[in-house]
Design brief:
The chain is mainly alpha-helical and 201 residues long. It is built from six helices and three strands, in the order αββααβααα. α1 runs parallel beside α3, α2 runs antiparallel to α3 and α5 runs antiparallel to α6.
Length: 201
């Protein structure tokens, strides 16, 4: 039994190494051909040019050099995984995916500048509804309710909030109406699932 488990672990390690090497090859095949030797990539980190704020200088580097560096690092991690293997292969995969994303950003910002801080800020802003829905799903699952209508509840709350807020000309009333609408939708699910034993799906 131990021999089978060892062979399975070795096979998984080899497959993971091949996947990591495939990421390195993808960086060179997808991004490198579209670049030229004189192109440069600029990453900026400052949102606004305000006096008195410490500014981080722009990071400027040759595009092709950055892509080669990302591909070499990803290939090194993949080769190490094939040769010796990492104790935590998932961490190695995360690092190589990070190299791939950085290579994509380097390619996308060639001969241009990209504000990484602004991109991170907008990503976090857009991730909040997904995070709230995920937390709602987690709480529902912990309570024993399968709630597949979370998005509909959020959209109902948003619609009622916009309607009431516009009619009352007060966004506080809109927020209160959104909470009430979400609570009514949740109560409807609870009554149907708990009281009448309706299939939750």
């Amino acid at each position: 039994m131990e021999i089978i488990a060892t062979k399975t672990a070795q096979r998984r390690a080899q497959v993971m190494g091949i996947v990591l090497l495939a990421f390195a090859a993808a960086i060179m095949l997808l991004f490198f051909p579209g670049t030229q030797a004189e192109q440069q990539t600029t990453f900026t980190f400052n949102l606004t040019r305000v006096q008195g704020v410490i500014e981080i200088p722009d990071f400027v580097f040759p595009t092709q050099t950055g892509l080669i560096l990302m591909a070499v690092l990803a290939a090194f991690v993949g080769a190490w995984q094939l040769a010796k293997g990492f104790k935590n292969a998932d961490l190695a995969l995360g690092g190589v995916v990070l190299f791939f994303v950085l290579a994509f950003l380097t390619w996308a910002a060639r001969d241009k500048s990209m504000n990484l801080t602004g991109m991170l800020q907008s990503s976090l802003l857009r991730a909040i509804p997904i995070l709230v829905a995920a937390l709602s799903g987690l709480l529902c699952e912990r309570s024993g309710i399968v709630n597949i209508g979370i998005e509909g509840m959020m959209l109902s709350g948003a619609f009622v909030s916009a309607l009431v807020g516009s009619l009352a000309q007060n966004y506080w009333w809109g927020m209160l109406a959104a909470m009430v609408a979400g609570g009514v939708m949740g109560a409807l699910l609870a009554v149907l699932a708990i009281r009448y034993k309706v299939s939750q799906v």
